[in-house]
Write a structure and sequence with these properties.
By secondary structure, the protein is of the alpha+beta class. The chain is 62% helix and 13% strand. 21% of the residues are buried.
């Protein structure tokens, strides 16, 4: 219905105008009916002679002066007798008009209050801890009220999702930190008790666990800064292909140790970026392929320009991603299948950091499967972007 699609102020103005017009019409019709009733009452109250005189006057005749005077006196007498009835009728007419206005006001107030009460009820429920509460969306109303309900429910959904992520994240952080801390404590206690030797390999193993803890803390800080919009980017124009070549040269021995070879297609790709952060993205994606797709034997890295965008594509030939919701791999501490378990190393935050850094550049990162097996990660960045904070 078109009325329900109008803005709230338009509906209010239209309702007020309609109420005024209806009140005027009601008063006009009521007064006309009252005048006719009054005339009929007076006519019925006249004596036969006066009534005949009045009919003669109404017909255009000229009755004798004495008859006209008698008619006048008779009408004055009758008017005095019906003054009380006239007052009662006028009061009744005013009361009906007032009741009509009150009814219109109540109907409008109820219509306006219903969605506001729904928001208030849901807000109280959320305040008491029920984050699943939503404002009930009743019959379509004014555009502003529909928008209010929609915005409130969107806010409630975001709040519920944030709370869920916070709970899951806190539990996951505790789980991820517990393992290296337990290992550290056990080995240190063993060395203190003389069970383990305090030699180079033992110390190197301890340092490895400390490095894992440091990486988890650093990744958590990066994600925290990104989530609050405070991730600083040192943006300048640079060649993504040159950046990739530099980092990949250092990674080749590590990949070879894992039984993987590196294939590259690095076309010159000038883009405004934070080289340190994009290097972090490249390292995380290649390391992800090394840890989870070593059976495929190959990791491919490609850079190219696609219109106003720069693309970085990492492809492997491993088992691929879970068939359901591949974007889940970017969640913090997400581990979907046994092939992605802790035994492969990593903090569980690498891909979440990738997504945060790419989005801080105003870009997107997508995950998917190759048609003939393996996973594909595509980073798309605008070649020109706003400098400063994410």
């Amino acid at each position: 219905m078109m009325w329900r699609t109008l803005r709230l102020r338009t509906q209010l103005a239209a309702a007020m105008i309609l109420a005024i017009l209806l009140a005027i019409l009601f008063g006009y019709v009521g007064l006309n009916l009252f005048a006719r009733w009054q005339e009929q009452m007076m006519l019925n109250a006249l004596d036969p002679v006066a009534r005949q005189t009045l009919m003669e006057v109404n017909a255009g005749g000229r009755p004798p002066a004495a008859a006209a005077v008698a008619l006048y006196k008779e009408r004055v007498r009758i008017a005095q007798t019906i003054d009380h009835e006239q007052s009662v009728l006028l009061i009744g007419l005013a009361a009906l008009a007032s009741m009509f206005g009150i009814a219109v006001g109540l109907a409008l107030a109820t219509r306006l209050a219903r969605p506001i009460e729904a928001v208030s009820h849901a807000a109280r429920a959320i305040t008491s801890g029920d984050l699943s509460a939503r404002a009930a969306e009743g019959p379509p109303g004014a555009g502003e009220l529909r928008q209010l309900l929609s915005d409130f429910n969107s806010m409630a959904e975001a709040l519920e999702a944030y709370d869920r992520d916070l709970r899951e994240g806190s539990a996951a952080i505790a789980h991820e930190l517990r393992t290296p801390l337990t290992i550290l404590r056990g080995r240190l206690q063993g060395q203190l008790d003389g069970v383990f030797a305090t030699d180079g390999p033992a110390i190197a193993a301890l340092i490895q666990e400390v490095d894992l803890l440091a990486r988890i803390v650093e990744d958590l800080q990066t994600l925290s800064l990104a989530n609050t919009g405070r991730l600083e980017l040192n943006v300048r124009l640079a060649d993504m292909a040159l950046l990739a070549a530099t980092h990949l040269h250092a990674l080749e021995p590590i990949l070879a140790t894992a039984g993987m070879r590196l294939e590259t297609r690095l076309a010159p790709t000038l883009v405004e970026m934070d080289e340190q952060r994009l290097g972090q993205v490249l390292l995380a994606l290649v390391d992800n392929a090394r840890r989870h797709a070593a059976t495929g034997g190959v990791v491919e890295v490609e850079t190219k320009i696609d219109g106003a965008s720069a693309l970085l594509i990492i492809t492997d030939r491993g088992p691929g991603l879970p068939s359901h919701e591949p974007d889940q791999v970017f969640r913090r501490f997400w581990r979907g299948e046994p092939s992605r378990s802790r035994v492969h190393g990593g903090s569980g935050l690498g891909l979440a950091v990738v997504k945060a850094v790419v989005e801080a550049h105003g870009g997107t990162v997508l995950a998917g499967d190759r048609p003939d097996g393996g996973a594909v990660f595509q980073v798309q960045l605008p070649r020109q972007q706003r400098r400063g904070k994410a």
